[in-house]
Write a structure and sequence with these properties.
By secondary structure, this protein is of the alpha+beta class. The chain is built from 7 helices and 4 strands, in the order βααββαααβαα. It is globular, with a radius of gyration of 19 Å.
């Protein structure tokens, strides 16, 4: 089922300790099935992690209610266990990685701008009926 409201897009950044990159990748190949289920149950979808040189990690997901998704995972025993095991991989992080990652500000989205451009160029109902 799709939501009538556009999903919230969330992008975040973390820094993986360079000396732990290989182990970090290994731990995500694959992620525990029960953790995957918790992420989905929290309402996160289209979730990806991207790793750049030097350990810069960018994460992205979509959700209908990020506050509810965060609260669900904060209360999850499985997520707490997973995040406790992931915490040592990150530089300068206070708290659980899933709760303390630095969110990034979205400045451009192609679909949103195409929709806005189309709406701006479409005649309104009043203009259409006047013709």
């Amino acid at each position: 089922m799709t939501s009538p409201v556009a999903p919230t897009r969330v992008c975040f950044q973390l820094q993986v300790k360079p000396e732990l990159l290989d182990e970090y990748i290994r731990r995500h190949t694959p992620v525990w099935p029960e953790m995957l289920a918790e992420i989905a149950a929290a309402g996160r979808r289209n979730y990806s992690l991207f790793l750049a040189d030097g350990g810069r990690l960018i994460g992205y997901y979509e959700t209908d209610d990020d506050e509810a998704a965060q609260a669900y995972l904060a209360a999850s025993e499985v997520a707490a266990k997973w995040e406790a095991q992931m915490a040592p991989f990150f530089v300068g992080l206070d708290g659980r990685p899933d709760q303390a990652a630095t969110p990034l500000t979205e400045v451009f989205n192609l679909a949103d701008q195409l929709d806005a451009a189309q709406a701006a160029s479409s005649p309104t109902t009043e203009e259409s009926s006047a013709s």
